[in-house]
Predict the structure of Acetylglutamate kinase.
Amino acid sequence: MQTLVVKYGGSVSEEHTFLLEEIAYYARNDVHVVVVHGGGPEVTQWLSRLGHATEFAKGQRITDELALQVVEMVLSGRVGKRIVRQLQKYGVRALSLCGEDAGMVRAVPYENGLLGYVGQVEMVDVRLLCSLLADRYVPVIAPLGVDANGQVYNINADFVAASLAGALRADAFVLATDVAGVREHANSQHTLEQLTEEEAISMVEDGRAIGGMIPKLQAVVHAVQSGAKAAYVLDGRMADALHSVMEGRSIGTRIIPTGIMKGGVEHA
Ligand SMILES: Nc1ncnc2c1ncn2[C@@H]1O[C@H](COP(=O)(O)OP(=O)(O)O)[C@@H](O)[C@H]1O
Ligand SMILES: CC(=O)N[C@@H](CCC(=O)OP(=O)(O)O)C(=O)O
């Protein structure tokens, strides 16, 4: 049975339904699918309604107490449930959880609390996910985690998705966003078809990737280093994006584990 982990970016808005339709298609056709969602733009909107300014550092939200509360409410509540409703409309049994549930995501403060209540993944426990997948549920996960003392943290969804993809030994890890893939540099028109782990790291270090692309590149590297067989950054608003991944057609940017240069998802 193949396993697919899809990070559904907040930049892929509700009106783009292809991705969720394709997720449901594979879930109905014997693929284990886990969805991890973002929702950053919606969190920013709610914070601004509350008169609260938003600041990002290296693609991550600087998170004070109010921002943390809004992240919890918006992601675990509104965004997660909306995705569940949509998936159920497409005929699969979906349920929304967050990284806190069943100790799924254990977090520690990101760089010793540099960004407030931003966490980084310390470890993941995928036992609940495995049971749910075996029972044909589609888990939809909000990117929160807790530490040993029960403190909750806001974690960038790319990182949560990557850690789960690695632990589940995903056949494909897909980061769905609002650009065609990783471009040569932030302002370039040229999307790279493939990237090695080393190239992805150097793009972060030398500034060719900025803002939201920084956590994505770090995440895909982590995913392939921790067990995912292939990782993609692609445009989640496009029809057939997942079909292309699953059928081995060229799509977005494929990050290849060092030493493995081959195309597509292997079919069992
Ligand atoms: N080298 C690059 N290639 C592609 N996109 C880049 C690059 N550097 C920065 N970006 C930016 O990263 C954004 C994607 O990150 P983000 O907005 O956080 O998406 P999401 O909400 O899906 O996580 C793109 O819209 C683009 O503006
Ligand atoms: C620490 C951090 O940056 N957390 C993110 C979590 C949501 C997210 O990752 O949303 P997107 O995938 O839509 O960007 C945030 O607060 O925006």
Remarks:
- The two ends are 7 Å apart (CA to CA).
- Helices lie at 18-28, 40-49, 65-89, 127-134, 157-167, 197-205, 213-225, 241-247.
- The mean pLDDT is 95.
- The longest strand covers residues 2-8.
